[in-house]
């Protein structure tokens, strides 16, 4: 069954996918220099560094920065992503588009199930199987050509 969104008769994709979408997890920003970006976001804007790591598989040095109250209620996360070398995806993104907004990430209850629901609806995902993301999370991405030009990440947080 298919219909116009918002009419109350949406296809079952909403029934299948909506319970898996828990909220916006973070917004990813590609930066050429992580230390400079961290200084801006923490020292100038007053945000807090909550996690930093190198993800060799993805070719990035990354930091999660929290915006908002320290108790975490309703906090927003920014993921700053710097390339570890010229062949990383982030390096290629910066070469092509310049630094800036790189992706929108949704937190999901089950990345494999969400990926399958999306594939069943004809969307392309970048990985056949979820990969390791920040802080041990499991991730996959919806191809930007299938998401209005936006790279959409699916994040299942580590338990």
UniProtKB/TrEMBL annotation:
One Gene Ontology biological process: L-methylmalonyl-CoA metabolic process
The protein's name in its UniProt record: Methylmalonyl-CoA epimerase
A Pfam family matched in the record: Glyoxalase_4
VOC domain residues: 23-157
Family from the record: Belongs to the methylmalonyl-CoA epimerase family.
Listed GO MF terms: metal ion binding; methylmalonyl-CoA epimerase activity
Keyword Metal-binding: yes
Alphabetical keyword list: Metal-binding
């Amino acid at each position: 069954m298919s219909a116009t969104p918002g009419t109350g008769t949406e296809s079952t994709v909403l029934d299948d996918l909506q319970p898996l979408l828990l909220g916006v997890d973070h917004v990813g920003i590609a930066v050429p220099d992580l230390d400079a970006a961290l200084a801006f976001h923490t020292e100038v804007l007053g945000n807090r560094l909550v996690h930093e790591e190198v993800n060799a598989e993805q070719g990035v040095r990354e930091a999660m920065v929290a915006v908002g109250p320290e108790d975490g209620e309703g906090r927003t996360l920014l993921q700053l992503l710097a390339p570890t070398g010229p062949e990383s995806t982030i390096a290629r993104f910066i070469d092509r588009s310049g630094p800036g907004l790189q992706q929108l990430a949704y937190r999901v209850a089950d990345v494999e199930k969400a990926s399958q629901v999306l594939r069943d609806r004809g969307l392309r995902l970048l990985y056949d199987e979820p990969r390791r993301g920040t802080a041990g999370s499991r991730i996959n991405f919806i191809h930007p050509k299938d998401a209005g030009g936006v790279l959409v990440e699916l994040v299942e947080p580590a338990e």
